[in-house]
Amino acid sequence: MRLPLALLTDVRLLNSGFRIGHWIHNGVTKTSLLSSCNICSRAERKWIKPVGFDTGVKTYNSLTKQKEPLVLAQERIATWYSCGPTVYDHAHLGHACSYVRFDILQRILSRLFEINVIHVMVITDIDDKIIQRSLEQNISPTVLARMHEEEFKRDMQALRVLPPAVYMRVTDNIPQIVAFIERIIGNGHGYVTSQGNVYFDTQSIGNRYGKLVNLGGIVGELGAQDKRDPRDFALWKASKPHEPHWESPWGQGRPGWHIECSTIASSVFGSQLDIHSGGIDLAFPHHENEIAQSEAYHQCEQWGNYFLHSGHLHLKGSVEKMSKSLKNYVTINDFLESYTANEFRLFCLLTRYRSAIDYSDASTNEARSTLSTISAFCHNAQAYMQGHLLCQPIEEGILWERLSATQSSVRKALADDFDTPKAVGAIMSLIHHGNCQLQPATKVDGPRCPAVFGAMLSYVREILGVFGVDLLDRKQSSDSCELPVILNNVVEELVHFRSKVRKFALSVGDQASQNPQTGSEIQKRHPQPDRVPLLKACDALRNNLAPLGVHIKDRGTNSTWEITRGGETRKN
Fold this sequence. Notes:
By secondary structure, the chain is α/β, with parallel strands linked by helices. It has 3 domains: 53-357, HUPs (Rossmann fold), CATH 3.40.50; 361-467, Four Helix Bundle (Hemerythrin (Met), subunit A) (Up-down Bundle), CATH 1.20.120; 481-563, no CATH class. The protein is 39% helix and 23% strand. The protein contains 14 helices and 22 strands. It has a 5-stranded parallel beta sheet, with helices on both faces. Strands 1-2-3-11 form a 4-stranded antiparallel beta sheet, with no helix packed on it. β1 and β2 form a beta hairpin. α13 (483-506) runs antiparallel to α14. Residues 1-43 and 475-483 have low confidence and may be disordered. This is Probable cysteine--tRNA ligase, mitochondrial.
């Protein structure tokens, strides 16, 4: 879905109590009516708390502008509808940020709080922009939409976004949309004009219009001349020459923007929806109009119980969101040439999902550094457990306490409106305390404590896995799924051979020298001269493999290794 980007440039007060606002949208000046007072009373906008299963999670609800207990109609089942893409061009990082953030929320609900999330997403495959772009490229709107729909799905897979239970295309649901509009008209909330357009009658629902957002009293655009009220919005648009169209009781045409989501969500979930999500730019008018027409169709007081909105992605130093219309965007494919899906997830996790987020080299490097710190801890913990890393005695009791406290803190943070920055902070604190005790030593006194590091390692992997960060870097490649395993085995054998050569080269011979004070002989232990070239060759191999992504760490006479690709790590 898309919301026109508009900048308010001028406002003039009218005697009628309305204001005229001049707006710039894609370089075109438009005029809107704005109300000088609130468009609905507090009583008529009151949120009705659902009755049902309390998840133990609190989430910020845009309907109430505060955190509310997340209560589901059915036990451990969440019905979730989200606005998908308008498929006329490449998806960019602004889109990706919203989809990844909500993917993280759904993963938290399902994997940590054991909620079965039933997610439906619409694909808008007929739209003004699709029609215009198809004319520019001299291809059919259907072909254009299918091309970018498949590209979008590939992008989401590359970012490890779990697919919804089902994608629903607008053009596959035209009969359902027509029937939905017919009932709205039959219920007294829509009207047909002489030009063949069908509009929602906002006056028919009184002051209930504006339940979600009151953006300074914005009430609608002046443009269409056949509307009864400037707040009214199109349910069905009469066709124009050379545009795609479908038959309807009101003549040939196509659906309005908002009706598709109400129809498709209702066709799957009926008259009640637990969660509706989208970018903050969709709150008005799109989600506002969805609420109005859905409640008019179902004749209910409250259709969607929770509306969750993600913040915009901004380029650092810019007040504008990343947008195609402003040509200030980065495509997902371009981003993934320099960074990984894991790094982008860390980038999203380091801010609250409903907060704006700055995209810059500094913020992406922070995500990369955080992921590197996590990976290094996992590598060192494994090395310690395998006996390759020798350390001083571990304060085991302290680490068990830290682990338990971290598990509690992370769960508490995520139950509080999915506070991922706080959760990540707790995880990094646990890793810090683990690293403080994983200090290499040449001589070990006392028992080893590998079990506590095994528990910490398992938890870090598990909770990062909940977020969709794959620390084991499992790749699903249709071209050569066995290549990573083969590569691991080759590197393992190479490092093992090098370790044996190095251990042999480090074996020392006794060399006598005289103590200048006493005149007595003392023994010094040095590598035998004929073995020094072997040591140099081992060092050269280690140094030469590093730029290729194979990093060998020598720990006394033992060695460990890891393979890194752009921040993602595969370890022995």
